[in-house]
Write a structure and sequence with these properties.
Arc Repressor Mutant, subunit A, 3-stranded antiparallel β-sheet, about 120 residues, globular, mainly alpha, 5 helices
Length: about 120
């Protein structure tokens, strides 16, 4: 008789990235940058209707810290800062694009009653 062993994957290294990418705005920022390439702060803000400047700034910082977005500042007046997806950011967008497309095709829960109530 053999004893079956179960191996659990250590998720410790992914906890930080999961915390960042599981946020609504993070996915939308990555998608916006993927759609347009390099964008300035206000261009991202205009593309993502409804995001507050603080939320955008905080989320961009977290995406940078996780290596998904790069921030390049230019020494000019007025100051110019541009954001671009890194190779990891492009790879992340590639794997999440089917989920975003699927979500866009779904009917809104606000518009349709639940199929079954609790």
């Amino acid at each position: 008789m053999t004893k079956e062993t179960h191996h659990e994957a250590c998720v410790c290294p992914v906890e930080g990235i999961i915390d960042v990418i599981s946020k609504k705005w993070a996915l939308l920022i990555v998608n916006s940058l993927g759609n347009h390439g390099t964008l300035r702060f206000m261009e991202i803000s205009e593309d993502l209707h409804g995001i507050s400047p603080k939320t955008l700034s905080d989320t961009l910082k977290k995406l940078q810290a996780e290596g998904l977005v790069t921030r390049e500042s230019f020494p000019c007046i007025p100051p110019r800062v541009e954001y671009t997806l890194t190779d990891d950011g492009l790879e992340f967008r590639k794997i999440t694009l089917p989920v975003l497309k699927w979500a866009a095709r779904r009917p809104s829960h606000k518009d349709h009653p639940r199929s079954h109530q609790a």
